[in-house]
Amino acid sequence: MSQYIAALDQGTTSSRCILFNQKGEVCSCAQREFRQIFPKGGWVEHDPMEIWASQIGVLVEAMGAAGLHADDLAAIGITNQRETTIVWEKATGRPVCNAIVWQCRRTAPMIEKLKQDGWAERIRKCTGLVPDAYFSASKLAWILNEVPHARERAQKGELLFGTVDTWLIWNLTQGRVHVTDYTNASRTMLFDIRRLCWDEDILEYFDIPLCMLPEVKPSSCVYGHTAESVLGGEIPIAGIAGDQQAALFGQCCFTPGSVKNTYGTGCFMLMNTGNRLVESENGLLSTIAVGMDGKVEYALEGSIFIAGAVLQWLRDGLRMLHSAPQSEEYCRRVKDTEGVYLVPAFAGLGAPYWNPYARGVMVGLTRGASKEHFVRAATESLAYQVNDLIDVMKRESGLELTALKVDGGASANDFLMQFQADISRVCIDRPQCVETTALGAAYLAGLAIGYWKSREDILINWRKDRSFLPEMAQEDCDKRVKGWKRAVRTALYWAQEEE
Ligand code: ADP
Fold this sequence. Notes:
This is Glycerol kinase. With 499 residues, this protein is of the alpha+beta class. It has 17 helices and 23 strands. It has helices at 48-65, 108-116, 120-127, 136-146, 150-155, 164-172, 182-185, 200-206, 228-231, 243-250, 309-317, 327-333, 371-397, 414-424, 436-448, 455-459, 474-498; strands at residues 4-10, 14-20, 26-33, 45-46, 73-80, 86-89, 99-100, 159-162, 179-181, 191-192, 197-198, 215-217, 220-225, 236-242, 259-263, 267-274, 285-292, 295-304, 341-343, 361-363, 403-407, 427-431, 464-468. The radius of gyration is 23 Å and the shape is globular. The protein binds adenosine-5'-diphosphate. Adenosine-5'-diphosphate is lined by residues 264-265, 308-309, 311-312, 324-325, 327-328, 408-410, 412-413.
């Protein structure tokens, strides 16, 4: 058998490729950034050809750096920025316009109309999503409405739609395979996550022809092989998952109740809910965690808009820090924040508060408040927001949270991890390999071809870097969380006054 699994990690700002061995160790890695295109305020686009070129480029580079040929790759797994929408010509492979990126807000009015038309509840029940311009549905409809002749050509079967996974596989196979997996399909807002098929009514609402949509397959199976002319060999493409679901899998969160949180610019928390689809009353999303072995597993997902970004703001906006990691040093210089709280609701508040008008507030200031208190309050705000999400997830799933697995840039902050363990009364486990997204895609591909035999086989690869156990007295912890909730109420009150 060949030796490595290649994970293609197609992110929002860069394309990466990591080659893993059987122990789940990184053997080679290459990364390339590509252009972010902002044609108008609130609009975000990527050039699909640049996505493809950068992705194939880093694959070749990673192989070259390790001296490998196509035969040395046992399989390829793909993980990708979710929801980003691409439409191309079936005959030529030429995109009809730029990719509309998940962040793009151009279709917000379409979503407003959809809500006015009374579709919000129907969408939520069917797709598990709260209707939003993030998801692919309205982006695809926009392309069909706005690109000349697009709808009529799509109806004739001349155009194809895909999320980024679909686009990459179509190119890797030179147009032979048009597929996606359950996790990516579940982010389009067009997919029925119970019946596991495209929903005819939603397609009709947006006037999207079914024939342009990819076939939806499990997250771990052989979808096809790379064309000989692309990489000089036919390598099986055997795993696909959207980035957050891939990270959940890469963190080996296989049992109901297991949770991972990624502390990046924002935070993404996913809880595996097994074969139960939990419907959230508090704006969490229900989504497909993974589809394999003839069934799907579900997850609850919650996100925080401003997490690590608050430290970037301290660094770049307020110039209080030289670097984000420096926050840890300041946090440790004081024993607490002396009652200062920062609620970084810079872009409103997400779950469980859901208020787009909320704005950042700082409360509890006294003459004694110093820069150290300020930085510590900012750092602690990540943990408080995550704690709010944990609370909702526990309540809604009815599952006890045994441990929280962490990754992402800010998970390197030991102070933050300890504080999280303290206020959330949960054991935090940080793995040695924080490349969990790519690893998840590699695992899915490797399992499909027998490179790894079972989930047990890969569980032994999850190696702990460090655990953080709750140490703070319950009373102190309650007092702090109570203070945070008061601070959040202030941010919400501020929003009310503004309306
Ligand atoms: P993304 O994938 O969202 O770009 P990363 O996972 O690379 O994010 O993490 C980057 C974020 O983590 C930045 O917002 C940065 O402020 C924050 N960060 C990085 N290192 C630390 C640290 N040691 N302590 C706190 N925050 C950090």
